[in-house]
Design brief:
The structure is a single chain. The protein contains eight helices and no strands. With 232 residues, the protein is mostly helical. Helix 3 packs parallel to helix 8, helix 5 runs antiparallel to helix 6 and helix 7 runs antiparallel to helix 8.
Length: 232
């Protein structure tokens, strides 16, 4: 988690400098962004500690509640003027390279399988193919934006692939909940561990962060493509 926060801080700092956002506003944006992020992470930790997410008897389960607010906030921020200005000065590869964090994340899930904490279907030994996103992220960014070997359409398709893998993983996680109504994967362990801290940060922050990177990249690439078509 510390690595992701550092990545967000470094990226925001450099991008606001490239966008010529003045010092005081830059400071306000950083305080607002990290105040919100740290506040949300703290809230998730507290709510998980008191066992709110661990009650799987209800329908729908409570864990997805952790996913919805950050995704909604991220989508709303796409309309923010400051975000749009920063996006205009963001090198396209910068929105794809960070997705490499999903490779070590998949290794963590695999480690949970080995230690008997997580189910096999949530790993690359089962039905989770998101490790492909993590491995290919730096390769795609380099070949598309540095070498120009592949077209930007390939980057657009790659983003949709990454979003699809996220949907698949989330679906598997839900179908592995210890809930009589939803459960499809009956092997043990279930995905109960996701209801506890610090794993609750996975659906509550890490997954939305990956989704937001995809959405930012798609917004940038599709906007540039539309502008090019208009110029032609």
């Amino acid at each position: 988690m510390a690595g992701i926060l550092w990545l967000i801080y470094r990226g925001m700092t450099q991008l606001m400098e490239r966008a010529a956002i003045d010092g005081p506003k830059r400071k306000r944006v950083l305080i607002l962004a990290f105040g919100g992020i740290l506040g949300w992470l703290s809230f998730l930790a507290i709510v998980a500690k008191i066992g709110f997410f661990a009650d799987f008897s209800n329908f729908p389960p409570r864990v997805p509640v952790a996913l919805i607010p950050p995704v909604i906030v991220g989508i709303l921020l796409l309309r923010n003027a400051t975000v749009k200005k920063i996006l205009q000065h963001t090198p396209p590869g910068w929105l794809i390279y960070p997705q490499a964090f999903r490779f070590p994340l998949e290794l963590i899930l695999w480690g949970m399988l080995i230690t008997g904490v997580g189910p096999v279907q949530m790993t690359f030994e089962g039905y989770n193919f998101d490790i492909i996103t993590g491995i290919t992220a730096p390769i795609v960014a380099w070949l598309v934006f540095q070498r120009a070997t592949l077209s930007r359409r390939f980057a657009i398709a790659w983003n949709f692939m990454g979003l699809t893998f996220i949907v698949i993983v989330l679906t598997i996680a839900v179908l592995s909940f210890p809930n009589d109504t939803l459960r499809y994967f009956m092997d043990e362990p279930s995905t109960r561990v996701v209801a506890y801290w610090p794993i609750i940060w996975l659906p509550g922050f890490v997954v939305p962060f990956a989704v937001w990177l995809h959405l930012l990249s798609l917004k940038q690439l599709l906007t540039q493509k539309a502008q090019l078509n208009e110029a032609l």
